[in-house]
Specification:
3-stranded antiparallel β-sheet, 10 strands, 276 residues, disordered N terminus, transport, single chain, globular, 13 helices
Length: 276
């Protein structure tokens, strides 16, 4: 049954009972002068079935407005990112983070997309400066799940949520899903769709170029020092890009550095020949 009427009319006790078949009562207004239309008390809770409760929630006019209300409460100019994954998610949506953890190393290891000089460094990714965060009063915080302080501790400062690095198999697919989920939270779905469409067009535009290279494998590395390097192995973020072009990863070893997240392996020069 589709409820008809204004939110105020729908929230009246007798209207709710008529539509949902659930006994309702109205809580007194705190000032005592009137009833609070949006403070509804369910009585006789014991006979209430889960089906009836879910039906009431699904039809509630308040539920329709929850996502919009949450997005409206988040000031996009005051969002703090406590790890680099959500930094890139925010920048992909066109949002400049208010603060970012470990800015110097982001510029060293990630560099693209670049961070404006206005971004405040809030400390380490594993141990952000909680006192500084409290003073900054962010409207929302984003982090990588399992990284840094507990969500309960961060919730004392501001609302927020964590995003997964990977499911252990398809980190790029997880990143795409995370972008869409963050966009939904911030009411920026159009920005996410635009970014993903641009990415897909870019990947497709390069396929003819890589077809001509034949079946040669590719070794993806980053130098650490004169004796060691990081090697990107299977299940890393870039592996799915290689798969798009049919390019085989030359590294057949494990991902010791970040393990389950499919990150790089730290190795010495002598290991390369044995693992390729």
């Amino acid at each position: 049954m589709i409820a008809q009427g204004t939110p105020a009319e729908l929230m009246r006790s007798e209207t709710l009972e008529q539509i949902y078949g659930i006994p309702m009562g109205i809580l007194p207004h705190p000032a005592g002068a009137a009833t609070c239309e949006f403070c509804v008390l369910m009585r006789d809770l014991y006979p209430l079935t889960r089906r009836r409760l879910l039906t009431a929630m699904a039809l509630s006019p308040l539920l329709w407005q929850m996502n919009t209300a949450q997005a409206a409460a988040i000031d996009p100019r005051r969002i703090v990112a406590l790890e680099w994954l959500p930094v890139e998610l925010l920048l992909a949506l066109g949002i400049t983070p208010y603060g970012v953890a470990d800015v110097p190393n982001y510029k060293l290891w990630v560099s693209e997309p670049p961070l404006p000089d206005s971004v405040i460094d809030v400390g380490l990714r594993t141990e952000p400066n909680l006192e500084l965060l409290t003073e900054m009063k962010p409207s929302f915080m984003v982090w990588s799940a399992g990284y840094g302080p507990s969500p309960e501790k961060l919730a004392r400062i501001a609302p927020g949520r964590g995003f997964d690095f990977s499911d252990g198999k398809k980190p790029l697919a997880v990143a795409r899903r995370s972008l869409v989920e963050l966009a939904q939270t911030l009411n920026l779905e159009a920005a996410a769709e635009k970014h993903l469409a641009q990415y897909d067009r870019f990947i497709a535009s390069l396929k003819p170029r890589f077809i001509r290279r034949g079946g040669r494998p590719l070794l993806m590395t980053t130098l650490i020092d004169p004796r060691h390097m990081l090697v990107l192995g299977p299940n890393c973020l870039f592996q799915e890009v290689l798969d798009e072009y049919g390019i085989r990863n030359a590294w057949q070893g494990g991902n010791q550095l970040l393990g389950q997240y499919g990150g790089p392996a730290s190795i010495g020069w002598r290991c390369i020949k044995r693992r390729m």
